[in-house]
Design a protein that fits this description.
The complex is a heterodimer. By secondary structure, chain A is mainly alpha-helical. Chain A is built from 3 helices and no strands. The longest helix of chain B has about 40 residues. Chain B is mainly α. The radius of gyration of chain B is 24 Å and the shape is globular. The chains are: A mainly alpha, B mainly alpha. Chains A and B meet through helix 1, helix 2 and helix 3 of A and helix 2, helix 3, helix 4, helix 5 and helix 6 of B.
Chain lengths: ~120, ~425
Amino acid sequence: MQNEWLYIGIFLVIGIIVPVVPLVFARLVAPRKPNSIKQSTYECGIETVGESWVQFKAQYYIFALVFLVFDVESVFLFPWALTLKQLPLFVVLEGILFIGILVTGLVYAWRKGMLEWV
Amino acid sequence: MTFWNNPINFIGNWLTGLLTGWHLPVALATILLYIIGITVLIVFAMTLDIGLVWVERKVVARFQDRLGPNRIGPFGLIQPVADIIKMVIKEDITPAGADKIIYNIAPVLAATSVILLWAILPLASTIYGVDLNVGLLYIVAAGALGTLAIIMAGWSSNNKYALLGAFRMVSNMISYEIPMVIILLIPTILANTMSVQGITQAQSGMWFAILSPLALLIFVISAIAELGRSPFDLNEAESEIVAGFHIEYTGMKFGWFYAGELLHAFTFGGFMAILFFGGYGGFFGLEKLAAFGWLNIPFVQALVFITKAMIGYWVIMWVKYSVPRIRIDHMLAFNWKFLVPLALVVLVNTAVLNKVLIDLPGWLYVLGMFGSNIVIGFITVEILRAHGRKQRSLTPPSPQPLHPSGHMSQGERGV
């Protein structure tokens, strides 16, 4: 392969075209007779009340905060894992120290009762 | 180089010769070749997808003691084609309050995210799209696009069930992604590369499933969670939120969510094979023997790979149809209090032992890696058992009465 990312770029374009083709085809052959009852929001037969786009309490938002920290930090581990073979044991242990700091954060959140359904 | 030992390059060279013979510039000929190759690859994936619909329906029928599709064609083989025709000619209903642009993009994105994974899937040593040196990060990135599609679908439908489905998908994502990323570090450490071809070739002697069985287990669990399949199918949960994020979709738009999910599951079966079972090769060095040289023919390798991927897919189906759905707070607790610590322990264990044992003779290295995983697994089970004993001693032996007011307690109220 001469240019990997060019390949991925073309792949993305064709990967978008392929799913669109049947949708366009369906638009040509499928019947279209919209009416207000058919287009109403489905709610098991009951008429829907109010907006759906309301402020909503996601009860797992503290998990999301912990997730954000872990997600960013786990990316830093990839270069470390990739060069592990060339590194001396000391640097390997330094990486483990970094993981240890991560674990300390997790244990702290756990002890604080943050990893609960609130 | 002949057609049989390097088919892609053979056809590629022939076509390049043909196109430059027509006085096309080389760059243009290359792009044209890419387009042809990619189209063939995607059409192959889509054809496989049609087959998967039949496999899935037939297997679920057998799990539920039914016959499954058996009317159209021999063994109902033509059934998926009939399904597609039906989906295409169904009326496409867009709910009145929907956010139309996002609503229409979501099913396309759901399919595209899966198709993108096929760019790096190595079917054989010479049949693959592209061999990225950041292959594993690419898997995570393309997988996240699928999650985004589900969130878009749920939000834009302007339907309360769909919105709940999207909320649950977010909770799915924040719980499985950390164990998944940490576990992807383990093949990286063992193979010393992030490219999927490199990882496959590093396993020609020994599968990573044997060097690190716990990593395989965690990968399977988090892959099922990423796919949103039972027991983690909270985002569609037919019995609770009807169909979740795709409740308002009809016709082919629904079809793309369905087809995308099946192909995604198969693709993850494929990644299971690549990361832990040696992909297209890897029978413990068997293919290096002269008598088994035919295992190195690309088409045989592709067949081996598809078989391994199909077994992985079958395991995912097996789990789906035999395990009941997990409660949402249990899923978050399971992932954060069990999978993440376990994944970190396995990572540290692999990093240190790989460094210490690498100079020892081969069999001692394998024994050390495998044995350490068994020890960690044993300790984990013991900790869980002790925890279970403690829980049981705290709660009274009689079954708990219902809450007097008939309401659910605080912890049981789901999103």
